[in-house]
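JOB MANIFEST
job_type = single_chain_structure
chain_count = 1
residues = 161
[input]
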Amino acid sequence: MELTKEEKLEQLERVLHSKTLHGSESLKAFLRYVVLMAVDNKEGSLKEYTIATEVFGRSSSYDSRSDSVVRVQAGRLRSKLQEYYSTEGKDDRVIIDLPKGHYTPAFSTAESTNGAPKRTVTGLQATAPSDEPRPLQDRRLAGVVAVFVLITLVLAMMAVN
């Protein structure tokens, strides 16, 4: 069963008013923004740059390579959502998740069967991770290529001698 927009928004309000997120205004703003964009079918706008400028007030010159605010806050939000659903939200029927590597929330339901909660994903919207390069992975790849080139040069020089 697909969740309605109203069900998703009601769950958003529950989480926003929870003890778990009490005092975490930036996480509340982040969660509110991504959920509202998702329920309005604007998932394509959920990019790191847009979130940094719209939610966290970064300037238009925001560079994710030097400012990891969105990734850090996404990790914190994931932890808080996990905490919420393991404590005060453990009996909630609707679950909001922020899958790792994505900024589009996934909505699912928890349906009880024989007393054991069963989680069923109903509204997962898969989005590609940010199109921006990941600096650490790029450096690792460059390092591997450099070592390979160096070994090739050494072997070529040994073959000439």
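[summary]
The CA atoms of residues 16 and 28 lie 6 Å apart.
Strands lie at 94-97, 106-113, 116-121.
exit_status = 0
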